[in-house]
Fold these 2 entries.
Entry 1:
Amino acid sequence: MSIIVNVDVMLAKRKMSSGELAEKVGITAANLSILKTGKARAIRFSTLDAICKALDCQPGDILEYREEEANS
Amino acid sequence: MKNKLSKRMGLISAFVIFFGVLNMIALLLRTESAIGIWGIWETEPALWDGEHHALKIVILCAYALAGLALNVLAMMFMLRSVKLMKSGFFFSKANVVVLRWSVLAYFVYDLCADNYNILCGMRRFVVQSDTIFLTCILLGFAMIYNAGLRLSEDNKLTI
């Protein structure tokens, strides 16, 4: 997918653990892992809102669009 | 609501299993009567000395096998659905496969049932409209179920 999830980068910047973020956001560690690994198909606005609040950042800091290279 | 639905599904499954087993017994009895082993099933006997011998064997075998397969698949589908419902999900990939095979089994079974009289000497091979109509409906249901599975997977991966 062309959407990259940069939660890891933000976690490192804020020096926060995944478990702590999951607890603050109110999602399971397994679901946070799905999000971090890019396996998630969609993200709810409420989850995005909670992540931005917990990490004190903007949605653009977490999500990034990168054009996929065409397979030759 | 989920509990109520689960109970209803359990009840329907019990019906499917009960009638499925009865149907399978009837199928086996009818088939063995056509072959002429014991002749328990009171029906017009199959004529094995006439023409189209290979076609008669194909119809009888396909009728028995597709009928048994259809009943087993229906029971599998219902039991899996009840089990899935208890675990909180409604759809599974395995059930999509079961439904697709059911479509094929139903088509073969119904086609052979419509042409069962060939075994008794009738010369016409027929394809009735209800066979095609019900097969299409079953195929449509299988496709809708598959779409439901995809939606459920999407929902599961929505964080």
Entry 2:
Amino acid sequence: MRLTPLFAGALLAALATSASAETITIATVNNGDMIRMQKLTGDFTARNPDIQLEWVTLEENVLRQRVTTDIATKGGQYDILTIGTYEVPIWARQGWLLPLENLGAGYDVDDLLPAIRGGLSLDGKLYAAPFYGESSMVMYRTDLMEKAGLTMPEAPTWAFIADAARKMTDRAADINGICLRGKAGWGENMAFLTATANAFGARWFDESWHPQFDQPEWKNTLQFYVDLMKDAGPAGASSNGFNENLALFQQGKCGMWIDATVAASFVTNPADSTVAGKVGFALAPDTGLGKRGNWLWAWSLAIPAGSQKAVAAEKFIAWATSKDYLALVASKEGWANVPPGTRTSLYQNPEYQAAAPFAKATLDSINAADPNNPTVKPVPYTGVQFVAIPEFQGIGTTVGQLFSAALAGQMSVDEALSQAQAATTREMTKGGYIK
Amino acid sequence: MARSVTLQKKLTFTALAWAVAFLLFFPIFWTILTSFKPEAQAIASPPVIIPSWTLENYVEVQARSDYFRHFANSVWISVGSTLIALLIAIPAAWAMAFAPTPKTKDVLMWMLSTKMMPAVGVLVPMYLLFHDFGLLDTVWGLTMVLTLINLPIVIWMLYTYFKEIPVDILEAARMDGAVLWKELVYVLVPMAVPGIASTLLLNIILAWNEAFWTINLTASKAAPLTAFISSFSSPQGLFWAKLSAASTLAIAPILVLGWLSQRQLVRGLTFGAVK
């Protein structure tokens, strides 16, 4: 068989491309924004034909375990990691991440929201680029609030929220005044309760790393939460996390829900939510002590120090977290589906403001969170809804199990706090924090 | 001695058997049903028994992930590890059943004891070994690990089956001039076919379902169906229907295999139970 010159040329070109193409492996979580990004990567590969992408999508906890094992053993299986604001400062300090210093001239790093950028930086260097950011806020049913004869302030107090929740509760109609996280886990109930405790003046540790669960502020926080959930929360609340409460709210069974700002796009989407047109937003509540119970989180893209393809990886990160990417999503799926909470310019965009009624509340919530001064009293750690130390995952989950048990009525609030104090003291002593 | 079984007893035991079968099958039934529901119905409370049927989840699952690549990896890993395990286990079980030493029981117990250690306890050393030998994210590496993990069970099962075969028959073969490999291939194996078949099937199922190592030692190239399922769980957003569709696709081949071979499986598992 004789190859025509044209065919031979095309074959050679194809072989040359595949030979020089570099494949980067991206470890990520399964959530709407990430899945959308996977579908839109044709835009990136068209601009960068020499880079191919391989995706590894895993459940959040599995991803954390896999990525931690790989990075700690320098396995080098991944070139880009999807990690959160908890991991970034810890891993950067360990030297496990490469600083992102070549994101390109048009990247506009100063456009990143200051609170988010601060949470992903160490010593002034950015170690991960935010893909989407979130805080927490109050989502409430405007019709039920009106029926209860109340008006939600823009910045409510916990006293107002508790009163409204009890008034909105209608057990006969299967309406719970408030839905809050109860499922045990450092990223589940403890994210919510740690942020709430900040508003009540509590803190995880004093300046010498001594646990503070024996202090009255924690007693006030936990007792308030357990009593409120008993009076106005859904049955089986100790098993409810983000997704369970999302389903309840979408089915019209919650008067209020305090959770991640990213939920706003879910509850206002008429395709999934039966209450889409009846949802209002407000800042997370406070108790008048100067701190609100709103957290700060950003799913971000980072490059492990063991990657052999850092240049290609950084190119991809620059694309996925750029202003152009936001515009690309808007052009394909509308402004309401753009990943929120990363760039100032997005919140100044009138088209986004019009398409996303939750934009202002989201931005205000993110701006109100301060990971460096998360509590009323001084603390030796950073992080709003977590403590950025490696031991926190274990300690947070243990304490979360105790608090979840208190919510389920399996132990009293005092017992839960006393056991939390003992367990945390033991782990912090073992970790060398308490001499 | 023949026993007369009253109709009432028969009915009671039949009802009990159906109840147990229903209980065992219910989670699978519910997973399959959920896979045909829209996401909102999948998590609805009270549960929706008759859904508004949709194939959307299956379409989405295939669009987001390559089922067939994961399926091929699962087949390779489970069948490969099972065949290698059988090759090692048949001679080992023969030796323990027909040429035991005073320490044979201890060796058997020791082998079983390796199953008692939590896998996560050796994750880091295993990961480092795999990294150093270039076995991370390879089907060869996983095949080796699953062979070693399931080998104690395979040896134990075959040992139990072989013990049921009268040693006189093997001796008769030897008297007729059969050498060791002929004794194994032409006498022992044909007599133990039901046992070997059930061991093979059970081991394929165990390897197919193994999730810890198959998720932790793979990334993209060698990831089997366990990793495929895991990718559909989501921290934020509804995912149960899609996860159920992925699970249904992942368990379907092994369910069909179990269904087709149930006679062999039951025969093998009850082999020698009644003398």
